[in-house]
Amino acid sequence: MDWKKDFIWGTATSSYQIEGAAFEDGKGLSVWDVFVREKGRIFEGHTGDVACDHYHRMKEDVALLAELGVGAYRFSVSWPRIMPHGTGSVNETGLKFYSDLIDELLKHHITPYVTLFHWDYPNELEMQGGWLNPSSPDWFAQYTAVVANAFGDRVKHYFTFNEPQIFTWLGYDRCTHAPGIKYPVGRILAMCRNIALAHGKSVQKLRELVPDCRVGYAPTCGNAYWPVEETELLAAKAKELQDSIGAEDWIHSSAFWNELFIKGRFHRQCPQLFGDDLPELSEGDRLLISQPLDFCGMNLYQGTSVCLSEAGELILGELPAGHGKTGMGWPITPKAMYWAVKNFYDTYQLPLFITENGMSALDVISLDGGVHDPCRIDYLERHLSELKRAVSDGAKVEGYFLWSFLDNFEWEKGYDDRFGIVYVDYETQRRVPKDSFYWYQNTIKS
Ligand code: GCO
């Protein structure tokens, strides 16, 4: 691998988390615009109404991306910004925002990677049952066609869904994310089937309208298990666990969604777990859902350790007291990067992009005017070296998108956690590149 010539270095963001302009220029409501107004849902009542005001500061932000020196930028399109009602009429001003963004990126030789769905679902469609509505796959295909027709001449890389395991699990089971409607498991499974059909129809539409496109999806790695000692026994156990789905957190597992999106089937454990609740997948469904993909994303932040106790029993998730953590309290587990990538590639042989990796920290602007984030640099260095190890062990990884370019709206945590390599002062909207920005700039160069 020629890390300089062939490897794609990028950063990632998403529409609701950075754009703001939530009610401007003809944009329709998303389920997040509604959810953030429900008392107690979001930290200190924060909303994405303004966020990083990227909608009005796009050129300044792209100039910063160009200074950073990335070859690619992963962003998402807000469905209700370009289709206010979710279906039917198109908002030309909304389309123009993304068209201008794409032109600005290309002017700076930055390749756009577009995520079609990063959770800001049109509220009017949610009112019609959302992903439970049997028409939802067609709604998504229609939206895909609008994006493909508008940008397909310049955008060749697409991710259909960002983290289907998160917006379903937190949106309709744990209810900490929009729309926060609690469904019984049977309904969630029916929703998963429609989401998978929507993914298949979207891939079909992209291939039809953008023949030279490359398509994938961006799951989180919900179950990244890593062996504390790299013995055969523990490595085998980590892989077995990564390929399994638990009874309680099946929906959070990457295995459930990779089997559905890549193989067009429910995971082998589903029949026992869900019995009659499990919807039928016809042969037609299978073929549609498992449309061949060009690559798969992986949003990787952390993993669960696998080790043996003194008595020789298997213990999960035991980390020594004082083990490193991020600002959100997530354990820092760089080996999860190696094992998640290696196990995924051994199982599916699909080229991978790390579509998100990074950490939240309680960053402040120091007295010297800089933002010093050595912990983030350490986190990134360790994860990138584990990624390099996985590549040298044969995994085909095409690129890496650091999460995130800007500090932004971290869903139910609001602005309390900062994931950016660029600090955002939300009072003034001033951008301050952190030390990690300059570290990443140098890493890309070298
Ligand atoms: C996710 C989402 C991002 C989050 C990031 C930090 O992976 O949950 O894609 O929108 O902000 O991961 O939690």
TrEMBL record:
Its EC number is 3.2.1.21. NCBIfam families: BGL (TIGR03356). Pfam families: Glyco_hydro_1. One of its GO terms (molecular function) is beta-glucosidase activity. Substrate binds at residues 17, 118, 162, 301, 403, 410-411. The active site is at 163 (proton donor), 356 (nucleophile). It catalyses: Hydrolysis of terminal, non-reducing beta-D-glucosyl residues with release of beta-D-glucose. It comes from the Bacteria. This is Beta-glucosidase. Belongs to the glycosyl hydrolase 1 family. InterPro entries: GH (IPR017853), GH_1_N_CS (IPR033132), Glyco_hydro_1 (IPR001360), Glyco_hydro_1_AS (IPR018120), Glyco_hydro_1_beta-glucosidase (IPR017736). One of its GO terms (biological process) is cellulose catabolic process. Keywords: Carbohydrate metabolism, Cellulose degradation, Glycosidase, Hydrolase, Polysaccharide degradation. It is an enzyme of class 3 (hydrolase). PROSITE patterns: GLYCOSYL_HYDROL_F1_1, GLYCOSYL_HYDROL_F1_2. One of its GO terms (cellular component) is cytosol.
